[in-house]
Amino acid sequence: MKDKFLGGLLVLLGACSFGVLSSIVKTAYQDGYKLGEVTGIQCFLGMLMLWSIHFIVKIIRSPKVSTLANAQLATPTKKHTKLTKKWKVCAVGLFPGLVGICYYQCVQLVPASIAIILLMQYLWVSVFIDFIFFKNKPSIIQLSAIIVIILGSCLAAGIFNQDISLNLTGCFFGFLAALMYSLFISTSSNIGNELPKLEKSAWMITGACIVTFLIFPPLFFFKLDISDKLYQLGFLLALLGTVLPPFLFSVGIPKIGISLSAILSAAELPVAVTCSYFYLRESVHFNQWIGVGIILLAIALPNLKHVKKNKLEK
Questions:
Q1: Alpha-carbon gap, residue 32 to 232, rounded angstroms
Q2: CA distance readout (Å), 101 to 21, 200, 205, 240, 258
Q3: From CA 93, how far away is CA 210, in angstroms rounded?
């Protein structure tokens, strides 16, 4: 029970961290930076941060055994198996890399409120993937929570406060971002769990960085100086969008499962609305706050049975 609570808390914190990103990205666009620059600096700095933390922790924790002794203990078969697992995790990085690219492109083509709604479709897509590929049937409570979250998302995104102008290309990228996010949640809970969490996150973001630079070659590095504001924004994007969430998800998702993780991840939207109000000073209507409250209630709903079970056991 404690493991499930801790897992849920970690996934929730990861989702909240993701929720801050939209305000930072909007600031970067207002300062004149482009999609490739924003996604590229986020992945690159995130990769550097994760590998640096991983090697520092490894040096601190490493037993005082000689390199020669370690080499004698490791057989060629074990080395090959471990390398294969690392490359699989690196390949999973394709999904978080594409989430950022597709979602940030969507924001440029459709209203931000519509983009958020499109991204939130990962809720039912994740549950669908979990059921089809991993045979985990969602409970009635989980299905009810998903429906409530989608309805609350419509209110929280404020789609009833403006005329909606849909761009089909933007909608395509928004739904593609939702699909990539769903695949990220599903694969991160089933691949590479035998690796240390920090190393797993580092390999994953290395994959995200590779796919980002293949789509957007990092030529912008040649025109930046060390004091450029893009580095400051990139550091925040890397920490809150690349370093913390994958690590928190890699620890939390295996403890609580894909379906519940998808529901808890919906905390991203209330955080995004709150940040836009306090940080960007954007107006948030009353019905949007109602939507935020509905989403928070829906997030708590699947956990009520665990609370009741805890009380009965006491």
A1: 14
A2: 13, 22, 14, 16, 23
A3: 9
Provide DSSP, the chain: -HHHHHHHHHHHHHHHHHHTHHHHHHHHHHTT--HHHHHHHHHHHHHHHHHHHHHHHHHHH--S--HHHHHHHS-HHHHHHHHHHHHHHHHHTHHHHHHHHHHHHHHHHS-HHHHHHHHTTHHHHHHHHHHHHH--PPPHHHHHHHHHHHHHHHHHTTGGGS-----HHHHHHHHHHHHHHHHHHHHHTTSSTTS-HHHHHHHHHHHHHHHHHHHS--GGGGG--TT-HHHHHHHHHIIIIIIHHHHHHHHHHHHH-HHHHHHHGGGHHHHHHHHHHHTS-----HHHHHHHHHHHHHHHGGGHHHHHHHHHH-
Alpha-carbon distance of 72 to 74, in angstroms, equals 6
| pTM, to two decimals | 0.79
Residue with tokens 């295996």: 254
Length of the chain: 314
Q: Which two tokens stand for residue 201?
A: 């996150």
> Tell me: the pLDDT tens digits for 59-80?
888 765 444 445 454 556 565 5
Distance CA 89, CA 206 (A): 9
Q: Which of 117-126, 156-165, 229-238, 302-311 has the highest mean pLDDT?
A: 229-238
Per-residue confidence band for 30, with pLDDT thresholds at 50, 70 and 90: confident
Relative orientation angle of helices 286-300 and 268-278, to the nearest 10 degrees: 150
What DSSP line would sit under 251-270, residue for residue? HHHHHH-HHHHHHHGGGHHH
Please tell me the distance from the alpha carbon of residue 146 to that of residue 273, in angstroms, as a whole number. Answer: 19
Q: What is the pLDDT of residue 37?
A: 94
CA nearest 42: which of 263, 189, 231? 231
